[in-house]
Amino acid sequence: MMIAQNTDFKHIARRRALVEELKKKGISDENVLRAIEKVPRHLFFNPILADRAYEDKAFPIDAGQTISQPYTVAFQSQLLQLQAGEKVLEIGTGSGYQCAVLLEMGAKVYTIERQETLFNQTFKRLHQLGYRATMKFGDGYQGWAAYAPFNKIIITAAAPETPPELLKQLDIGGIMVIPVGEKMLRICRVLETEYSTENVGEASFVPMLEGVN
Length: 213
Ligand code: SAH
Known about the structure:
alpha/beta; Rossmann fold; single chain; 9 strands; two-stranded antiparallel sheet; binds S-adenosyl-L-homocysteine; seven-stranded mixed beta sheet; 6 helices
């Protein structure tokens, strides 16, 4: 999508290097790597930190939140086993970077953020960059019933437990990737009433908070 004439060679080279680093760290989904190579992460940063945007690190954004580490974005995206055209619900829009990666992967993205200042800032940013997601200011614990069920659900803040409303909004055959406490879980909805849960690694995220701010 976007950046038809992205002639910014410095950033292109840095993104290629980042992709190589992610491959070495175990990311193998070509669709994920291609998306990371495309999304201009420096434009999702506070300008003061933008020069560091292609380090494989999390950085602060507004409202005391963070833009996830590229490895984490890639890891969660890979765990979703995304097919083009699938409906994905993201909880924790933050900077919009993860959302942009999912859009580049061909998903239809619905994303919810509870921090109003961040929501407004990111709404403008994604629009200016040509990324078209359906965005809501609200509490992700409630999910987004109007658009459910979702093929995939990704939570980018650490929840104390899996929110029941989100489990309900996951399609049968769907996958949810969620950090619960310090563990990354992949939950598959096998049947109407049956879910299978795998622990797929460690996770370190800002907390998933209730209500809006
Ligand atoms: N995906 C983001 C990561 C942002 S950090 C990115 O790529 O930049 C996690 C975000 O989750 C924060 O912006 C935080 O405000 C938001 N968040 C926390 N609890 C939430 C909730 N209950 N509903 C929606 N968003 C929430």
